[in-house]
Amino acid sequence: MGVFLGGGVAQASRDQWSSSFGFLAAAVGSAVGLGNMWRFSYLTAEKGGAAFVALYLLFTVLIGLPILLAELTLGRGARKSPIGALGHYGGGRWKALGGLFVVTGLLILSYYSVIAGWTVRYAAEALVVGMPADPGAHFAAISEGDHAFLFHVLFMGFTMAVVAGGVSRGIERVSVIAMPLLFLLVCGIALYAATLDNASAGYSYYLNADLQNALSMDVVVSAAGQAFFSLSLGMGAIMTFASYLPRDGNLPRESLTIASADFGVAFLAGLMVFPIIFALGLQAAVGESTLGALFVALPRAFAEMGAAGRVVGFCFFIALVVGALTSALSLFEVLVSAVVDELQWARPKAVAVMGVVVTVLGSGAAWNIAVLDVMDQVANNFFLLLGGLMLAIFTGWVMKDPVAEAAGGAGEGGLGLWRFLLRWVAPPFLLFVLWHSVPSTAANVWALISG
Ligand code: TRP
Protein backbone atom coordinates (compact mmCIF):
# COMPACT_ATOMS: atom_id res chain seq x y z
CA MET A 1 0.00 0.00 0.00
CA GLY A 2 0.94 3.59 -0.35
CA VAL A 3 3.82 5.14 1.48
CA PHE A 4 2.80 8.69 2.28
CA LEU A 5 5.13 11.54 1.49
CA GLY A 6 4.91 15.29 1.43
CA GLY A 7 2.09 15.88 3.90
CA GLY A 8 0.17 12.83 2.86
CA VAL A 9 -0.36 14.11 -0.64
CA ALA A 10 1.78 11.83 -2.72
CA GLN A 11 1.73 8.08 -2.58
CA ALA A 12 4.98 6.50 -3.66
CA SER A 13 3.20 3.50 -5.13
CA ARG A 14 0.59 5.43 -7.06
CA ASP A 15 0.57 4.55 -10.72
CA GLN A 16 1.55 7.28 -13.23
CA TRP A 17 1.10 7.86 -16.95
CA SER A 18 4.29 6.83 -18.67
CA SER A 19 4.24 9.75 -21.14
CA SER A 20 2.34 12.94 -21.69
CA PHE A 21 1.04 11.52 -24.96
CA GLY A 22 -0.26 8.56 -22.99
CA PHE A 23 -2.19 10.85 -20.68
CA LEU A 24 -3.56 12.90 -23.56
CA ALA A 25 -4.62 9.77 -25.45
CA ALA A 26 -6.45 8.50 -22.38
CA ALA A 27 -8.10 11.86 -21.63
CA VAL A 28 -9.14 12.37 -25.25
CA GLY A 29 -10.25 8.74 -25.23
CA SER A 30 -12.44 9.51 -22.25
CA ALA A 31 -13.97 12.54 -23.93
CA VAL A 32 -14.42 11.06 -27.38
CA GLY A 33 -17.02 8.33 -27.39
CA LEU A 34 -20.63 7.52 -28.03
CA GLY A 35 -21.39 11.06 -26.94
CA ASN A 36 -19.58 12.46 -29.97
CA MET A 37 -21.03 10.07 -32.50
CA TRP A 38 -24.29 8.58 -31.33
CA ARG A 39 -25.56 11.25 -28.95
CA PHE A 40 -24.26 14.28 -30.85
CA SER A 41 -25.80 13.21 -34.14
CA TYR A 42 -29.17 12.26 -32.78
CA LEU A 43 -29.43 15.43 -30.72
CA THR A 44 -28.37 17.56 -33.68
CA ALA A 45 -31.05 15.93 -35.80
CA GLU A 46 -33.69 16.22 -33.11
CA LYS A 47 -32.87 19.73 -31.92
CA GLY A 48 -32.65 21.48 -35.24
CA GLY A 49 -29.23 21.13 -36.86
CA ALA A 50 -26.63 23.84 -36.78
CA ALA A 51 -28.29 26.02 -34.13
CA PHE A 52 -27.82 23.20 -31.67
CA VAL A 53 -24.22 22.71 -32.80
CA ALA A 54 -23.47 26.41 -32.31
CA LEU A 55 -24.89 26.47 -28.78
CA TYR A 56 -23.03 23.30 -27.90
CA LEU A 57 -19.78 24.86 -29.11
CA LEU A 58 -20.45 28.03 -27.16
CA PHE A 59 -21.09 26.10 -23.93
CA THR A 60 -18.04 23.94 -24.52
CA VAL A 61 -15.83 27.04 -24.63
CA LEU A 62 -17.44 29.18 -21.92
CA ILE A 63 -18.44 26.53 -19.38
CA GLY A 64 -16.89 23.21 -20.36
CA LEU A 65 -13.33 24.36 -20.84
CA PRO A 66 -13.06 26.16 -17.46
CA ILE A 67 -14.49 23.16 -15.61
CA LEU A 68 -12.20 20.83 -17.54
CA LEU A 69 -9.22 22.84 -16.32
CA ALA A 70 -10.66 22.81 -12.79
CA GLU A 71 -10.86 19.02 -12.81
CA LEU A 72 -7.32 18.71 -14.16
CA THR A 73 -6.04 21.09 -11.49
CA LEU A 74 -7.76 19.36 -8.57
CA GLY A 75 -6.73 15.88 -9.66
CA ARG A 76 -3.09 16.66 -10.35
CA GLY A 77 -2.71 18.73 -7.19
CA ALA A 78 -4.18 16.21 -4.78
CA ARG A 79 -3.04 13.01 -6.52
CA LYS A 80 -6.08 11.27 -5.20
CA SER A 81 -9.33 10.08 -6.62
CA PRO A 82 -12.14 12.65 -6.36
CA ILE A 83 -13.37 11.88 -2.83
CA GLY A 84 -9.87 12.28 -1.44
CA ALA A 85 -9.02 15.20 -3.71
CA LEU A 86 -12.04 17.22 -2.66
CA GLY A 87 -11.39 16.36 0.99
CA HIS A 88 -7.77 17.42 0.55
CA TYR A 89 -8.65 20.88 -0.75
CA GLY A 90 -11.97 21.49 0.92
CA GLY A 91 -12.19 19.40 4.09
CA GLY A 92 -14.50 16.54 5.01
CA ARG A 93 -17.75 18.13 3.90
CA TRP A 94 -16.64 18.31 0.29
CA LYS A 95 -16.00 14.59 0.22
CA ALA A 96 -19.75 14.24 -0.27
CA LEU A 97 -19.32 15.75 -3.74
CA GLY A 98 -16.88 12.95 -4.53
CA GLY A 99 -19.55 10.53 -3.36
CA LEU A 100 -22.01 12.13 -5.77
CA PHE A 101 -19.49 11.55 -8.56
CA VAL A 102 -19.35 7.86 -7.76
CA VAL A 103 -23.14 7.60 -7.88
CA THR A 104 -23.19 9.47 -11.21
CA GLY A 105 -20.50 7.19 -12.59
CA LEU A 106 -22.47 4.09 -11.63
CA LEU A 107 -25.54 5.52 -13.31
CA ILE A 108 -23.80 6.53 -16.54
CA LEU A 109 -21.60 3.49 -17.02
CA SER A 110 -24.47 1.08 -16.47
CA TYR A 111 -26.49 2.32 -19.45
CA TYR A 112 -23.47 3.45 -21.49
CA SER A 113 -22.30 -0.14 -21.51
CA VAL A 114 -25.66 -1.29 -22.89
CA ILE A 115 -25.39 1.08 -25.86
CA ALA A 116 -21.75 0.09 -26.30
CA GLY A 117 -22.99 -3.50 -26.40
CA TRP A 118 -25.21 -2.61 -29.38
CA THR A 119 -22.18 -1.22 -31.19
CA VAL A 120 -20.15 -4.38 -30.54
CA ARG A 121 -22.97 -6.41 -31.98
CA TYR A 122 -23.36 -4.21 -35.07
CA ALA A 123 -19.61 -4.32 -35.75
CA ALA A 124 -19.56 -8.11 -35.44
CA GLU A 125 -22.60 -8.44 -37.70
CA ALA A 126 -21.14 -6.10 -40.32
CA LEU A 127 -18.13 -8.36 -40.49
CA VAL A 128 -19.91 -11.70 -40.48
CA VAL A 129 -23.35 -11.29 -42.07
CA GLY A 130 -23.48 -7.75 -43.43
CA MET A 131 -26.09 -5.11 -42.71
CA PRO A 132 -29.56 -6.18 -41.54
CA ALA A 133 -32.26 -6.30 -44.20
CA ASP A 134 -34.78 -4.48 -42.02
CA PRO A 135 -32.76 -2.26 -39.69
CA GLY A 136 -35.79 -0.94 -37.82
CA ALA A 137 -36.99 -4.39 -36.85
CA HIS A 138 -33.44 -5.49 -36.19
CA PHE A 139 -32.78 -2.61 -33.83
CA ALA A 140 -36.03 -3.27 -31.99
CA ALA A 141 -35.06 -6.90 -31.58
CA ILE A 142 -31.52 -6.40 -30.33
CA SER A 143 -31.75 -3.18 -28.32
CA GLU A 144 -33.81 -4.68 -25.52
CA GLY A 145 -33.91 -8.09 -23.90
CA ASP A 146 -31.48 -10.96 -23.31
CA HIS A 147 -29.39 -10.12 -26.36
CA ALA A 148 -28.87 -6.56 -25.23
CA PHE A 149 -27.99 -7.86 -21.78
CA LEU A 150 -25.52 -10.37 -23.18
CA PHE A 151 -23.62 -7.76 -25.16
CA HIS A 152 -23.68 -5.42 -22.16
CA VAL A 153 -22.01 -8.19 -20.12
CA LEU A 154 -19.48 -8.75 -22.89
CA PHE A 155 -18.62 -5.07 -23.11
CA MET A 156 -18.26 -4.75 -19.33
CA GLY A 157 -15.95 -7.75 -19.52
CA PHE A 158 -13.60 -5.88 -21.92
CA THR A 159 -13.74 -2.79 -19.74
CA MET A 160 -12.94 -4.73 -16.58
CA ALA A 161 -10.07 -6.59 -18.25
CA VAL A 162 -8.37 -3.34 -19.31
CA VAL A 163 -8.89 -1.49 -16.03
CA ALA A 164 -7.63 -4.50 -14.08
CA GLY A 165 -4.29 -3.92 -15.83
CA GLY A 166 -3.98 -0.55 -14.11
CA VAL A 167 -3.45 2.96 -15.39
CA SER A 168 -0.16 2.90 -17.30
CA ARG A 169 -0.25 -0.76 -18.23
CA GLY A 170 -3.97 -1.06 -18.94
CA ILE A 171 -5.76 2.17 -19.80
CA GLU A 172 -2.77 3.96 -21.34
CA ARG A 173 -1.65 1.04 -23.47
CA VAL A 174 -5.08 0.64 -24.99
CA SER A 175 -5.63 4.38 -25.49
CA VAL A 176 -2.40 5.11 -27.35
CA ILE A 177 -3.44 2.62 -30.03
CA ALA A 178 -7.19 3.18 -29.93
CA MET A 179 -7.26 6.94 -30.32
CA PRO A 180 -5.12 7.29 -33.46
CA LEU A 181 -7.13 4.41 -34.96
CA LEU A 182 -10.38 6.19 -34.18
CA PHE A 183 -9.20 9.44 -35.77
CA LEU A 184 -8.16 7.62 -38.93
CA LEU A 185 -11.47 5.81 -39.21
CA VAL A 186 -13.56 8.91 -38.63
CA CYS A 187 -11.57 11.01 -41.11
CA GLY A 188 -11.68 8.23 -43.69
CA ILE A 189 -15.44 7.80 -43.45
CA ALA A 190 -16.08 11.55 -43.55
CA LEU A 191 -13.97 11.77 -46.73
CA TYR A 192 -15.82 8.86 -48.25
CA ALA A 193 -19.16 10.51 -47.39
CA ALA A 194 -18.06 13.65 -49.24
CA THR A 195 -17.81 11.65 -52.46
CA LEU A 196 -21.47 10.59 -52.40
CA ASP A 197 -23.93 12.21 -54.79
CA ASN A 198 -26.19 14.59 -52.99
CA ALA A 199 -23.93 14.78 -49.94
CA SER A 200 -24.49 18.53 -50.06
CA ALA A 201 -28.10 18.13 -48.87
CA GLY A 202 -26.69 16.59 -45.71
CA TYR A 203 -24.17 19.39 -45.24
CA SER A 204 -26.75 22.07 -45.65
CA TYR A 205 -29.05 20.44 -43.12
CA TYR A 206 -26.15 20.05 -40.69
CA LEU A 207 -24.58 23.46 -41.16
CA ASN A 208 -27.50 25.82 -41.70
CA ALA A 209 -28.74 27.37 -38.50
CA ASP A 210 -32.43 27.42 -37.75
CA LEU A 211 -32.32 30.14 -35.12
CA GLN A 212 -35.89 29.71 -34.06
CA ASN A 213 -34.95 26.40 -32.49
CA ALA A 214 -31.94 27.72 -30.63
CA LEU A 215 -34.17 29.94 -28.56
CA SER A 216 -36.10 27.14 -26.95
CA MET A 217 -35.07 26.21 -23.41
CA ASP A 218 -35.16 22.56 -24.28
CA VAL A 219 -32.42 23.08 -26.85
CA VAL A 220 -30.35 25.12 -24.40
CA VAL A 221 -30.63 22.43 -21.73
CA SER A 222 -29.71 19.68 -24.16
CA ALA A 223 -26.74 21.61 -25.52
CA ALA A 224 -25.44 22.26 -22.01
CA GLY A 225 -25.90 18.63 -20.95
CA GLN A 226 -24.18 17.51 -24.13
CA ALA A 227 -21.20 19.82 -23.54
CA PHE A 228 -20.67 18.15 -20.16
CA PHE A 229 -21.29 14.63 -21.31
CA SER A 230 -19.06 14.92 -24.32
CA LEU A 231 -16.12 16.34 -22.36
CA SER A 232 -16.63 13.76 -19.59
CA LEU A 233 -17.17 16.55 -17.06
CA GLY A 234 -19.08 16.83 -13.85
CA MET A 235 -18.29 13.51 -12.25
CA GLY A 236 -14.56 13.46 -11.65
CA ALA A 237 -13.50 11.32 -14.61
CA ILE A 238 -10.94 13.82 -15.87
CA MET A 239 -10.00 14.58 -12.27
CA THR A 240 -9.25 10.91 -11.67
CA PHE A 241 -7.09 10.68 -14.79
CA ALA A 242 -5.25 13.87 -13.78
CA SER A 243 -4.46 12.33 -10.39
CA TYR A 244 -1.98 10.07 -12.20
CA LEU A 245 -0.11 12.99 -13.77
CA PRO A 246 3.41 14.00 -12.81
CA ARG A 247 3.81 17.57 -11.51
CA ASP A 248 5.15 19.11 -14.68
CA GLY A 249 3.04 19.58 -17.76
CA ASN A 250 0.97 22.50 -18.89
CA LEU A 251 -2.63 22.00 -17.79
CA PRO A 252 -4.18 24.97 -19.61
CA ARG A 253 -2.67 23.78 -22.86
CA GLU A 254 -3.78 20.22 -22.22
CA SER A 255 -7.33 21.33 -21.52
CA LEU A 256 -7.36 23.10 -24.89
CA THR A 257 -6.04 20.04 -26.67
CA ILE A 258 -8.63 17.76 -25.09
CA ALA A 259 -11.54 20.09 -25.80
CA SER A 260 -10.47 20.68 -29.41
CA ALA A 261 -10.04 17.00 -30.12
CA ASP A 262 -13.43 16.30 -28.56
CA PHE A 263 -15.26 18.96 -30.53
CA GLY A 264 -13.33 17.98 -33.64
CA VAL A 265 -14.51 14.39 -33.53
CA ALA A 266 -18.13 15.40 -32.84
CA PHE A 267 -18.00 17.78 -35.77
CA LEU A 268 -16.49 15.10 -38.00
CA ALA A 269 -19.15 12.66 -36.87
CA GLY A 270 -21.75 15.06 -38.24
CA LEU A 271 -19.75 15.23 -41.47
CA MET A 272 -20.00 11.48 -41.83
CA VAL A 273 -23.54 10.86 -40.62
CA PHE A 274 -25.56 13.58 -42.34
CA PRO A 275 -24.19 13.31 -45.89
CA ILE A 276 -24.59 9.52 -45.80
CA ILE A 277 -28.15 9.72 -44.59
CA PHE A 278 -29.20 12.51 -46.95
CA ALA A 279 -27.40 11.06 -49.94
CA LEU A 280 -29.63 8.03 -49.64
CA GLY A 281 -32.76 10.05 -48.94
CA LEU A 282 -33.20 8.54 -45.49
CA GLN A 283 -33.78 11.69 -43.48
CA ALA A 284 -37.20 10.47 -42.36
CA ALA A 285 -35.59 7.50 -40.66
CA VAL A 286 -33.65 9.84 -38.38
CA GLY A 287 -36.82 11.31 -37.00
CA GLU A 288 -38.44 7.90 -36.51
CA SER A 289 -36.32 6.93 -33.60
CA THR A 290 -34.23 9.35 -31.61
CA LEU A 291 -32.11 6.99 -29.55
CA GLY A 292 -31.90 4.61 -32.46
CA ALA A 293 -31.13 7.12 -35.23
CA LEU A 294 -27.63 5.83 -35.83
CA PHE A 295 -28.60 2.24 -35.47
CA VAL A 296 -31.49 2.37 -37.90
CA ALA A 297 -30.87 5.04 -40.53
CA LEU A 298 -27.17 4.35 -41.03
CA PRO A 299 -27.37 0.57 -41.46
CA ARG A 300 -30.12 1.16 -44.00
CA ALA A 301 -27.81 3.51 -45.88
CA PHE A 302 -24.91 1.07 -45.65
CA ALA A 303 -27.13 -1.75 -46.92
CA GLU A 304 -28.09 0.31 -49.96
CA MET A 305 -24.46 1.02 -50.77
CA GLY A 306 -23.69 -2.64 -51.41
CA ALA A 307 -20.17 -3.94 -50.90
CA ALA A 308 -18.70 -0.52 -50.14
CA GLY A 309 -21.40 -0.04 -47.52
CA ARG A 310 -20.38 -3.19 -45.76
CA VAL A 311 -16.77 -2.04 -45.43
CA VAL A 312 -17.73 1.50 -44.43
CA GLY A 313 -20.33 0.15 -42.03
CA PHE A 314 -17.82 -2.13 -40.39
CA CYS A 315 -15.33 0.74 -40.01
CA PHE A 316 -18.04 2.98 -38.62
CA PHE A 317 -19.13 0.55 -35.94
CA ILE A 318 -15.53 -0.29 -35.05
CA ALA A 319 -14.96 3.44 -34.51
CA LEU A 320 -17.98 3.46 -32.20
CA VAL A 321 -16.73 0.43 -30.27
CA VAL A 322 -13.27 1.95 -29.86
CA GLY A 323 -14.69 5.28 -28.71
CA ALA A 324 -17.08 3.60 -26.32
CA LEU A 325 -14.37 1.44 -24.80
CA THR A 326 -11.92 4.24 -24.05
CA SER A 327 -14.75 6.30 -22.53
CA ALA A 328 -15.97 3.40 -20.43
CA LEU A 329 -12.42 2.98 -19.11
CA SER A 330 -12.55 6.46 -17.60
CA LEU A 331 -16.01 6.01 -16.13
CA PHE A 332 -14.96 2.72 -14.60
CA GLU A 333 -11.65 4.07 -13.31
CA VAL A 334 -13.59 6.64 -11.25
CA LEU A 335 -15.44 3.82 -9.49
CA VAL A 336 -12.39 1.60 -9.10
CA SER A 337 -10.04 4.31 -7.88
CA ALA A 338 -12.63 5.50 -5.36
CA VAL A 339 -12.69 2.16 -3.56
CA VAL A 340 -8.97 1.55 -4.02
CA ASP A 341 -8.16 4.90 -2.39
CA GLU A 342 -10.94 5.13 0.17
CA LEU A 343 -11.33 1.50 1.25
CA GLN A 344 -7.78 0.38 0.41
CA TRP A 345 -9.07 -2.49 -1.68
CA ALA A 346 -6.67 -4.20 -4.04
CA ARG A 347 -7.36 -3.28 -7.67
CA PRO A 348 -8.53 -6.75 -8.79
CA LYS A 349 -11.10 -6.90 -6.02
CA ALA A 350 -12.28 -3.35 -6.78
CA VAL A 351 -12.62 -4.21 -10.49
CA ALA A 352 -14.57 -7.39 -9.78
CA VAL A 353 -16.99 -5.92 -7.27
CA MET A 354 -17.66 -2.66 -9.09
CA GLY A 355 -17.93 -4.51 -12.41
CA VAL A 356 -20.65 -6.74 -11.03
CA VAL A 357 -22.50 -3.77 -9.54
CA VAL A 358 -22.47 -1.91 -12.88
CA THR A 359 -23.53 -5.01 -14.79
CA VAL A 360 -26.50 -5.56 -12.50
CA LEU A 361 -27.54 -1.90 -12.52
CA GLY A 362 -27.35 -1.86 -16.31
CA SER A 363 -29.73 -4.77 -16.64
CA GLY A 364 -32.69 -2.40 -16.27
CA ALA A 365 -31.50 -0.42 -19.27
CA ALA A 366 -30.78 -3.60 -21.20
CA TRP A 367 -34.28 -4.90 -20.75
CA ASN A 368 -36.13 -1.67 -21.32
CA ILE A 369 -35.01 1.09 -23.64
CA ALA A 370 -37.33 3.60 -21.94
CA VAL A 371 -35.36 3.04 -18.73
CA LEU A 372 -32.15 3.66 -20.65
CA ASP A 373 -33.51 6.90 -22.07
CA VAL A 374 -34.53 8.17 -18.64
CA MET A 375 -31.18 7.18 -17.09
CA ASP A 376 -29.46 9.17 -19.82
CA GLN A 377 -31.62 12.22 -19.20
CA VAL A 378 -31.27 12.09 -15.42
CA ALA A 379 -27.51 11.70 -15.69
CA ASN A 380 -26.96 14.47 -18.23
CA ASN A 381 -29.63 16.99 -17.53
CA PHE A 382 -29.29 16.71 -13.77
CA PHE A 383 -26.30 14.93 -12.22
CA LEU A 384 -23.57 16.21 -14.53
CA LEU A 385 -24.89 19.75 -14.42
CA LEU A 386 -25.11 19.61 -10.62
CA GLY A 387 -21.61 18.14 -10.39
CA GLY A 388 -20.32 20.86 -12.72
CA LEU A 389 -22.02 23.57 -10.69
CA MET A 390 -20.45 22.32 -7.47
CA LEU A 391 -17.04 21.99 -9.12
CA ALA A 392 -17.21 25.56 -10.41
CA ILE A 393 -18.21 26.88 -6.99
CA PHE A 394 -15.56 24.81 -5.28
CA THR A 395 -12.70 25.81 -7.55
CA GLY A 396 -13.82 29.39 -8.04
CA TRP A 397 -14.80 30.28 -4.48
CA VAL A 398 -13.66 27.69 -1.93
CA MET A 399 -10.25 26.47 -3.02
CA LYS A 400 -7.25 28.60 -2.07
CA ASP A 401 -5.28 30.02 -4.96
CA PRO A 402 -6.53 27.83 -7.80
CA VAL A 403 -4.65 29.97 -10.32
CA ALA A 404 -1.26 29.04 -8.87
CA GLU A 405 -2.26 25.37 -8.68
CA ALA A 406 -3.43 25.35 -12.29
CA ALA A 407 -0.30 27.11 -13.51
CA GLY A 408 1.94 24.77 -11.49
CA GLY A 409 4.90 27.11 -11.61
CA ALA A 410 4.45 28.08 -15.26
CA GLY A 411 2.97 31.37 -16.42
CA GLU A 412 -0.40 32.43 -15.09
CA GLY A 413 -1.43 34.34 -18.21
CA GLY A 414 -5.11 33.98 -19.01
CA LEU A 415 -5.89 32.20 -15.77
CA GLY A 416 -7.54 35.28 -14.29
CA LEU A 417 -10.17 34.92 -16.98
CA TRP A 418 -10.48 31.25 -16.09
CA ARG A 419 -11.22 32.10 -12.47
CA PHE A 420 -13.67 34.76 -13.53
CA LEU A 421 -15.58 32.25 -15.66
CA LEU A 422 -15.64 29.74 -12.80
CA ARG A 423 -16.89 32.33 -10.37
CA TRP A 424 -19.29 34.48 -12.30
CA VAL A 425 -20.32 32.71 -15.47
CA ALA A 426 -20.55 28.97 -14.83
CA PRO A 427 -22.54 28.98 -11.56
CA PRO A 428 -25.37 31.31 -12.62
CA PHE A 429 -25.56 29.66 -16.02
CA LEU A 430 -25.71 26.16 -14.55
CA LEU A 431 -28.27 27.18 -11.94
CA PHE A 432 -30.42 28.63 -14.69
CA VAL A 433 -30.14 25.48 -16.78
CA LEU A 434 -30.86 23.22 -13.80
CA TRP A 435 -33.85 25.34 -12.91
CA HIS A 436 -35.30 24.58 -16.32
CA SER A 437 -34.20 21.00 -16.65
CA VAL A 438 -35.30 19.64 -13.28
CA PRO A 439 -39.07 19.90 -13.81
CA SER A 440 -38.99 18.35 -17.26
CA THR A 441 -36.56 15.61 -16.24
CA ALA A 442 -38.69 14.85 -13.18
CA ALA A 443 -41.79 14.69 -15.37
CA ASN A 444 -40.09 12.18 -17.65
CA VAL A 445 -39.03 10.02 -14.72
CA TRP A 446 -42.55 10.18 -13.37
CA ALA A 447 -44.05 9.22 -16.73
CA LEU A 448 -41.79 6.18 -16.82
CA ILE A 449 -42.64 5.08 -13.29
CA SER A 450 -46.35 5.55 -13.67
CA GLY A 451 -46.19 3.62 -16.93
N1 TRP B 1 -17.44 11.62 -22.87
C1 TRP B 1 -17.83 10.30 -23.21
C2 TRP B 1 -18.58 10.32 -24.54
O1 TRP B 1 -18.68 11.36 -25.13
C3 TRP B 1 -18.63 9.61 -22.15
C4 TRP B 1 -18.00 9.71 -20.82
C5 TRP B 1 -16.86 9.14 -20.41
C6 TRP B 1 -18.44 10.50 -19.76
N2 TRP B 1 -16.58 9.52 -19.11
C7 TRP B 1 -17.53 10.36 -18.70
C8 TRP B 1 -19.53 11.32 -19.63
C9 TRP B 1 -17.72 11.04 -17.53
C10 TRP B 1 -19.71 11.99 -18.45
C11 TRP B 1 -18.79 11.87 -17.41
O2 TRP B 1 -19.03 9.33 -24.99
Characteristics of this structure?
single chain, two-stranded antiparallel ribbon, globular, disordered N terminus, Hydantoin permease, mainly alpha, binds tryptophan, 451 residues
Structural overview:
With 451 residues, this protein is mostly helical. It has one domain: Hydantoin permease (Orthogonal Bundle), CATH 1.10.4160. The chain contains 20 helices and two strands. The protein has a two-stranded antiparallel ribbon. Helix 2 crosses helix 13 and helix 4 runs antiparallel to helix 5. The chain is globular and about 60 Å long. The N terminus is likely disordered. Bound molecules: tryptophan. The site of tryptophan has 16 residues, from helix 1, helix 2, helix 11 and helix 16.
By secondary-structure content and strand pairing, the structural class works out as mainly alpha
Largest sheet: 2 strands, antiparallel
Write the CATH architecture name: Orthogonal Bundle
Assigned CATH class: Mainly Alpha
The run of helices and strands is: EEHHHHHHHHHHHHHHHHHHHH
Unreliable residue runs: 1-10
Helix tally?
Answer: 20
Q: Overall pLDDT, averaged? A: 92
Number of strands: 2
Gross morphology is globular
Q: What is the CATH homologous superfamily assignment? A: Hydantoin permease
Alpha-carbon Rg, integer: 21 Å
